[in-house]
Amino acid sequence: MIIFESFAGWIGFLAWSGSRIGLWTSSQIAPTAVWYFVGGLPFLFRAFEAKEGAQHFRGYATAVLSGTTLIEFIYVAKTFSLPTELILTPIVTFIALLAVVSERDLKHAAVNKLLTWVLAIAALTILWHSVSQIWAEPETFFTIETARCFILPIYLAIFSFHLSMRFISFRTLRVRLFI
Questions:
Q1: d(CA 119, CA 122)
Q2: Quick one: pLDDT at residue 18?
Q3: Is 78 exposed, middle or buried (0-12, 13-18, 19+ CB in 10 A)?
Q4: How far apart are the two ends of the chain, measured CA to CA in Å?
Q5: Alpha carbon distance 12, 15 (integer Å)
Q6: 1 alpha-carbon distance from chain centroid
Q7: Which H, E and C letters describe the chain, residue by residue?
Q8: CA dihedral 164, 48, 53, 170 (to 10 degrees)
Q9: What are the Cα distances from residue 103, in Å, to 20, 46, 58, 113, 175?
Q10: Distance (Å, whole) CA 8 – CA 59
Q11: pLDDT, tens digit, 9 for 90 and up, residues 96-151
Q12: Which of 98, 102, 129, 147 could form a disulfide with 112 if both were Cys (CB 3.0 to 4.6 A apart)?
């Protein structure tokens, strides 16, 4: 539990730091929370499987700086109503966490495949909703605030990488001391 709280505190610190340089504003609370649950926590879980010095995060870094970022941006740029978000976010987060856990063991491959399909359908539905909103009101999409939202997942992922590496170093140190 301390790890989740530490990670949430780190994301809060990144938000505060970003606000000091004009990269983050209070209007980005919801996209930051969505990133924490949908992007950050799965990333944190993967950090515990990594070995120090390994190239474990190379794939994740590539994904952060690729088309995944664009899709995540479109997702957070135009969201559902608050009640819908309050229902969807925990459900999608739970399914995403189950998918991360199920990919650890080959005997759960069928479950992982099913959960991946469920997540893909959910993502496509959310993406369709966002694109439809952007198409209907393009003038509200192309703004400075939208640019901040585009940069947000990249900013959070890059600086969360540092904290994840600290968790790996701490785990390695703990294992070395107590074995």
A1: 5
A2: 92
A3: buried
A4: 24
A5: 5
A6: 18
A7: CHHHHHHHHHHHHHHHHHHHCCCCCHHHHHHHHHHHHHHHHHHHHHHHHCCCCCCCCHHHHHHHCCHHHHHHHHHHHCCCCHHHHHHHHHHHHHHHHHHHHHCCCHHHHHHHHHHHHHHHHHHHHHHHHHHHHHHHCHHHCCCHHHHHHHHHHHHHHHHHHHHHHHHHHHHHHHHHHHC
A8: 70
A9: 39, 10, 18, 9, 24
A10: 23
A11: 888 888 888 888 889 989 998 998 898 888 888 888 888 888 888 788 888 887 88
A12: 102
Which pair of tokens denotes residue 8? 């949430």
Contact present, 173 and 92 (Cβ < 8 Å): no
Mean pLDDT confidence for 33-60 = 70
Rounded distance, CA 31 to CA 27, Å? Answer: 8
C-alpha distances out from residue 176 to 9, 42, 149, 155, Å? 27, 26, 41, 32
Residue pair 42/164 in contact by the 8 Å Cβ criterion: no
CA 72 to centroid of chain Cα atoms: 9
Asked if residue 38 lies in contact with residue 92, where contact means CB atoms within 8 angstroms, the answer is: yes
Burial class of residue 76 in the structure, from the number of CB atoms within 10 Å of its CB (0-12 exposed, 13-18 middle, 19+ buried):
buried
